[in-house]
Amino acid sequence: MKPSFNVIILFFLSLTVSFAEPNVAIPALTLDQAINKLTKGTQSKVLKAKTKLISEKPIHSIRILTEKGRLKRVDIDATTGRLVDQSMEK
To answer: Which fold has domain 23-89?
Structure first.
């Protein structure tokens, strides 16, 4: 490779690193994994699912219709896979 080409590549690599969000946790559990974990072995239907940031932590918010016909919202911490206390949002 030519030296000038190496400089161009390094420049673009530095741009991608500099635009990364500081202090934002990287999810260890994807939204699809969280949905599968929540609904595995049940007849529950996912109505809505999204990932949002609460206090700079990625939280998977999943709304389901249970087997008994009840609506339920479950929040899962994307970094740990644990259920989130609903009172954290307020």
So the answer is: Nuclear Transport Factor 2; Chain: A, (3.10.450)
